[in-house]
Amino acid sequence: MIVMRTNATEEEIAGAISYVENRGLRAHLSRGAERTVIGIVGDIRRVQKEAIETLPGVDHVVRISRPYKLASREFQPDNTEFNINGVRVGSNQILIIAGPCSVESREQLLETAHAVREAGGHALRGGAFKPRTSPYAFQGMGEAGLEILAEARQITGLPIVTEVMAPEQVPLVAKHADVLQIGARNMQNYNLLHAVGQTERAVLLKRGMSATAEELLMASEYVLSNGNRRVILCERGIRTFETATRNTTDINAVPVLKSQTHLPVFLDPSHSTGKTEYVTAIARAAVAAGADGLIVEIHPHPEDAVSDGAQSMRPEQFADMVRQVKAIAEAIGRTVPEHKREIA
Amino acid sequence: MIVMRTNATEEEIAGAISYVENRGLRAHLSRGAERTVIGIVGDIRRVQKEAIETLPGVDHVVRISRPYKLASREFQPDNTEFNINGVRVGSNQILIIAGPCSVESREQLLETAHAVREAGGHALRGGAFKPRTSPYAFQGMGEAGLEILAEARQITGLPIVTEVMAPEQVPLVAKHADVLQIGARNMQNYNLLHAVGQTERAVLLKRGMSATAEELLMASEYVLSNGNRRVILCERGIRTFETATRNTTDINAVPVLKSQTHLPVFLDPSHSTGKTEYVTAIARAAVAAGADGLIVEIHPHPEDAVSDGAQSMRPEQFADMVRQVKAIAEAIGRTVPEHKREIA
Amino acid sequence: MIVMRTNATEEEIAGAISYVENRGLRAHLSRGAERTVIGIVGDIRRVQKEAIETLPGVDHVVRISRPYKLASREFQPDNTEFNINGVRVGSNQILIIAGPCSVESREQLLETAHAVREAGGHALRGGAFKPRTSPYAFQGMGEAGLEILAEARQITGLPIVTEVMAPEQVPLVAKHADVLQIGARNMQNYNLLHAVGQTERAVLLKRGMSATAEELLMASEYVLSNGNRRVILCERGIRTFETATRNTTDINAVPVLKSQTHLPVFLDPSHSTGKTEYVTAIARAAVAAGADGLIVEIHPHPEDAVSDGAQSMRPEQFADMVRQVKAIAEAIGRTVPEHKREIA
Amino acid sequence: MIVMRTNATEEEIAGAISYVENRGLRAHLSRGAERTVIGIVGDIRRVQKEAIETLPGVDHVVRISRPYKLASREFQPDNTEFNINGVRVGSNQILIIAGPCSVESREQLLETAHAVREAGGHALRGGAFKPRTSPYAFQGMGEAGLEILAEARQITGLPIVTEVMAPEQVPLVAKHADVLQIGARNMQNYNLLHAVGQTERAVLLKRGMSATAEELLMASEYVLSNGNRRVILCERGIRTFETATRNTTDINAVPVLKSQTHLPVFLDPSHSTGKTEYVTAIARAAVAAGADGLIVEIHPHPEDAVSDGAQSMRPEQFADMVRQVKAIAEAIGRTVPEHKREIA
Fold first, then answer.
1. Which regions of chain D are under pLDDT 70?
2. Superfamily of domain A82-331
3. Phi-psi region of B16 (alpha: psi -120 to 50; beta: other; left: phi over 0)
4. A2-61 domain in CATH 3.30.70.1140?
5. pTM of the predicted protein model
């Protein structure tokens, strides 16, 4: 939809029409009292919005169709559902993933894994490769961390969710993990999205801290269009002017995404608040708003955590959160499932 | 707390200390490996943070004590509770205020008021004076609108919440309304805050669209310090880069405010989303996060509304929202009260 | 321009067309491959964008014409120029307004006024009524401050720019001042905009800290449509996530506003940075970007300022800034005028 | 600097002190009227800010020392200067890099390269690997594009600036390019920063669209700490609520970065505005604010550009921009150098 300037000449209008028609599209002219508008009919991927805006007499171009396809509810009306190592995602059941920010040691991780399982969590998170703002901060245990995660799955039966940071790490991480997490800073790392799109592992895609909901959907389209349909979207807080919390939880994104896409939508109340004392309230809010799952940070001894201590719950706080989330889930006709497996 | 530059000289350190001591305060020197820090002990309102930052050798000043007092939980640990025409605010009960954006006619308002009452709403909102972005848009019915609101209270028993836009309107609006609403655009209209602080009417203070939670508390301090302790804070969405919704609901603000202040905290899911289809989900989330009440826009015929049609629920949608919010309230051990009054 | 949903039925399309035509407007149908679009032709103020969005089958509505008129370059192609007590605004000459944040005493103001004049400033700013975040902070000298400002004009010949905060203050402030300043927090205080629109004083309208350029133009439309055509727009920094500076100077707003409106555009580098050390660089940038004037904070003794000390220049810093700004002005073919008046 | 809660007990204060001392650091106690503060003296990398915030009685922790070192002016007071294929960066001379968003063909690139050279540009930019929001958009010519860029250097003598998107592309891109560009979306792609930090090519590091100036410096620290000291920082606009321009140019970042780091600071007025009509004004502003260089998008036929057409200047617009920027540079005592090389 090309909006012409109010003072556009007939010649400029004709020029814009020719531009469209020369590219194999049809132009549809509409003259208003103030402005003339030209609709473009056909496959608009043949023209560039920005290029049209450079034509003389053109004020701006309004895009009317959505830029993503595979992720849209129009393409697939029913919710995407799938299993992760026996756990169902995207159904009426609400899933809770928990664990430490970083894998720090075998002891720390196993202690946490047992706590997750006992409290009613369904999957274990933990970072082996860590994106850190400072090059001098702990960067994760790497492969050794992945092996500890795999051992924790062996012992507790909990599927493993862990971050992958670069295309060349994908085969290694995919070998050990059940879900490949793409961190907020990498939401538009397209080479990485391509790489995980070609694996058979589910992908948990975190929203970038200044990405719109639409851009998150476009990022998921990179994974989907590479053949991997098992994508979980995750709201984790956006960056705003507010400094009372680490990020601002965009709770609106939950119903917005649920209405626009069939993919499951999770929320991370630990990163979206940055403070333990607010995590339970936001976890309740997320489920009330329609989220399909949660991913939270817990640590047996937050004061000793090498990263994210301020937003990590203690196991007993987490157990209490699970109880509260269950009550909310039931109030809206959903459930938080019990475990069906035994400890190996 | 004055943080000196790493290369500050002894003379500059001595200068900063003198500056503090000359103003009747005590300075407390602390030398770190990299930097020297000077604590200021005493009534810091005698010095200006900004002024100190102009002194030679000073890098910046960090404020440690909170800038508000009467609004803080440290000043008053227990929740503020009060009655509005028979309705209890700030207690374990959750309050629902509803009504049209603008009072458009007697018929429209009375029809809406009955719908609010039947659906289980506890107070009626409606604008007689409207802040509009455009000088050419409908600016409200003014005093005639206030009289219609008062009649609706007479008939339905619902207390009235309505906006006041200027100090000189305060006596008139206070004559008709039970709660004086301060709109987001006026959150830092200090003359208006003074004026409502001197009335005996409760005040519903909306957060400015780019105000921090702390600034909202500072604005409430203007009302409180004028002697009016009946203040309701209201989150109504903040302005961010996201365009999928009209504003971004800052759901974090609910637990943040509840931890920092004793004042009741409400949320307006109509303005914070801007789209009817998301209002119920965000109303549920607000209550799940700990909000003490909701204020929502409803209209018997949204397609004919003179303002805010896209975010106004139909009465039957509102009734459904009330039912869902009740379920959430009960899940967290709170209630949405039934009406105790009869129609006059 | 009504954009229908992809799955809109023929009945829904017909319904939307009837809606438009029933309000005396013409509907213009355009069927695309994916979506149907209905153009609205006529005076669109008869319909509400939001109301149409509630109709069944409607996805969203795109506004194509601008919502402001008197402020637009389409309405008046030539720049607005006017005199303020002998000083020309909006011409090829660049104007510099300077002075303290607050009038603190006769001595402080007169000392500053002389410094402004000597350094080559063209008008004197100073606050008598101060909007302060805290009710406990200094709120300005009020009428006594206005009288000191008037005396400073008498002595130095500099026109006076000072803030007005409430409609009832307008007559008093207009009696003493040459330019009525509307502060950022009051940009959408519509009662105040109405009141200053009915005076004969020029108005310096500061952009709200989260207002778009379009909203600033809409606010100016309130003043213009009340008959006052002497409006200066002023960029003063917007609120973003960046904390290195007090606000983020939206330098883009300078060419954006200059292309969309005929009104003069100023920039306030003191508030837009919040730190003296950056003021000169941003003053140069503003003029390089096309600003018609600057308003800066200076104080003879910033370390003693009761407000805004950290962003107030000393007189000698200001004099240096004026020299640098002159060089930039000349590089782009503009001038910073010398004084033509003598001290009384 | 640990700030205790106002109601912290003696036991909690003692606990926080022990925590610090047990980690080999010294604690420095300071009791205020309202609050107690504990300074931490020693290598604070041994403790986690977040972990301390979980201790009982602790309100929050304030960091006083900067988190980056090699990038800071305190570490290196003098500006970093270096040559890129005969062109000096970081000196008193201002550098202009120009070229198309994408390399589209040999003809397009060579035509543009000649235009850059003739207009007085100093280096040629052009993308061979393109980060695109949509997986369906043109993703760049890849290696063939790099070869065309190398040929353009051969012919015009202009050094080549081109983006690298993934660690595994680094050797290939480094083989052909003089400057490796890290795009805004990859500013915190730490694996990529490591990889370019180990090459001998200069790096142009673009600020992420929601990154603070400090985070940009932290990202540069990743490159510097890997041994590569030839880093150029580039402001390219940040994401805000304003929609009149594609991004908001953070002009403040120029003096902020210049005061905090010795690295050269460039600005990209094409991305920071998104509209050709504003590029020249912002280019002038950037140089007036103290930028050391510019990177701009030009295209011989913007209406045919496969990407970023709306913000690409035509060659004659670019030549005019260079002339205007020269005048600004001279006004502040800097120069835009002429070419010293002949066409091969």
1. 33, 45, 339-344
2. Aldolase class I (3.20.20.70)
3. alpha
4. yes
5. 0.91
